[in-house]
Amino acid sequence: MKVTVKDGIKGFSGRLDGAIYYYHPRLKRTLMRRQPKMPAQPQNADYATIAQRIKALNPSSAYRYDFKIYLSTLRDHDDQVTYPSWYSLFVKMLWALQAKYPSQVDLKTLTRSQIIQQELPCVSVRDAVENGLLPMVPGIEYLDHQI
Fold it and tell me: Over the stretch 19-38, which tens digit does the pLDDT of each residue have?
């Protein structure tokens, strides 16, 4: 749902009346979504821990740039791609990594040094694509910066 705002508050963001407002830079619009009403469940804590671990990986700027180029190329080749940023694609890749290698990868305990030491396929965008964690696009051979 698109939100109309007056000129003075173009980048308005926050919560108001059960809704969340935020500015999307690629769309150049302020968007609104309903605030989720989820009951507290035991697995919520697990997902919170995983989200904190993924954020703590803190990929290098070259790795992030490779992901941005990859996402741009992916959008050029497939109109159905709806990832808003490189980070959402990064998170999806890590979940696919855990699904493919459940004995080696646990997102609750994953660290950057573990990724490098075990030479996991998410160490670079090229390796992730070659191992089937991300869709194939042309030009991936140049996306080889390490996490």
Answer: 888 887 777 778 888 877 87
Tally the domains of the chain.
2
Query: pLDDT tens-digit profile of 35-73?
Result: 778 788 888 888 888 888 888 888 888 888 888 888 888
Contact present, 121 and 96 (Cβ < 8 Å): no
Q: Which two tokens stand for residue 89?
A: 């694609």
The residue segments making up the domain with residue 57 are 42-142
Which CB contacts under 8 angstroms, 24+ apart, belong to 106-112? Answer: 107/50, 107/53, 107/54, 108/46, 108/49, 108/50, 108/53, 109/53, 110/53, 110/54, 110/57, 111/53, 111/56, 111/57, 112/57, 112/58, 112/147
Structural domain contains residue 10:
yes
Task: Read off the pTM.
Answer: 0.70
Q: Are residues 32 and 76 in the same domain?
A: no
Asked whether residue 147 is assigned to any structural domain, the reply reads no
